[in-house]
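tool=predict chain=A
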Amino acid sequence: MIPFDANGNFHPRAGGHEIRRLAVRGAAVTVSASGLALAAQVVSTIILARLLTPADFGVVTMATTLSLLLVSCGFNGFTEAIIQFEEVDRQTVSNLFWLNSGIGLALAVSLAATGSLLAKFYGNPLVADVCKGLSVGVFVAALSVVHLALLQRAMRFVGTSINDVTGRTVNTAFAIALALHGWGYWALVAGIVGQQLSITLGGWMMCPWIPSLPRRTGKTGAMVRFAAEVYGQFTVAYFTRNIDNLLVGWRFNAVALGFYKKAFDLFALTASQLTAPMNNVALAALSRLHQDHERFRRSLASSLGVVALLGMAASAELTLVGKDVVRVVLGAKWSEAGSIFEMFGPGIGAMLLGSTVSWIHLSIGKPGRLLRWSIVSLALTVFAFLIGLKWGPSGIAAAWSISYWALLLPSFWYAGRPIGFRVSALVSAVWRYTAAALAAGLVTAAIMRRTQLWESPSGAGAAGGAIVIISILFVTLYLGTVLLLHWGLAPLRQLTSLLQELTPLSRPVAEVGGEYK
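tool=predict ok
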């Protein structure tokens, strides 16, 4: 893709009447790619959990708690600025590239230099060397931010999705190969750096644009301020999501953190596979509707209904089969992670819905409001963590679930005020799915109590069988209750229609101006 024309203006753009079709097609591709990424991650998790120890995962988590924040500096800020601004030009984007690359280099050096301080904080000397290894990936990742953002602005989601899957596959291959050769935690470090290198190379290949030297344009400052507000919000939200790792690693040890991290990864994996692939698609589409509040509200409510349909089912089902999932995926030596994962389950549905709040703030150009809400959310979540710490990692997991539900309605009330999206609209869109998941979950649990399924099977094969039986029972009850509450087949028709639209070969994409429409 050549992103700019001879005059330096961004030119791969779609007409307004094609936005929905491109957004749906983008969602189709990203969800499909997400499935492939999930497969790669599941394979990696299953194999590495048996090759490495909880302590290996724990020591890498101690370092990545900081490194992932630094890697995300440009991805969460400049990306949204390039996508959201009405007009962008070659010179301004070039300025952003050099600025982001310089920041990436400074952050990489800082991570390598502060590794010893982190090692002292955790009481684990291995953390210092891990930080030095991960610092390479921080700089490499910074070089891809602007190119990937241009591709996303042009709604080239096919290429970016393939690039992401390739990067995850490289991570899996590197980590497994080196773990088989006895590299221990260094196998995980090499996989992370390899993924970042693969994504950067892929971004430059798909968008072979060479930035020009920095020059004043009068537009860079506004985009940098927007990006700074977005990254400020992301930083606060990141600490909200990762301060639990700090507390567990500091209060306990690398082994306890390894168990906790694996349980959290399975918990977060559900969210990442259902909503993360839609984030940039939703932002690109809603950003073009922010002037039409009525269409914006309808589109948002429809999206929330789909998220609730899938999310509430996942929340109830994984609460029921959490221990068995851990036994099958990770193996018997990770049984302690199963007890922790069981506490995460009830919060999955609320977490998925809460993650969509950023779509509202960013698409209407209000990152400052998102930052302010994130600060409030951080304070309340940390308070819940400090209370839950008394009960160990399982208490922290339970605090997560409680905080997600406690913050859900206030977060939408605050986010929806500028566009008139009321809490009642959220409740109307999701309450039937919430009630159906609760009812089906309680009935399934009552049936389980009368059978041997209530006790966790000792072997992986038996655990897998229990997952299948429980899942069939729950899904049958859930779908039946959903249809009953809707007094008909409307939810299934809506889902079927969406799946048809998401079929990559459903309709051709017409060409416009040498690009696409």
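The chain has two domains: 18-250, 252-429. Residues 252-429 form one domain.
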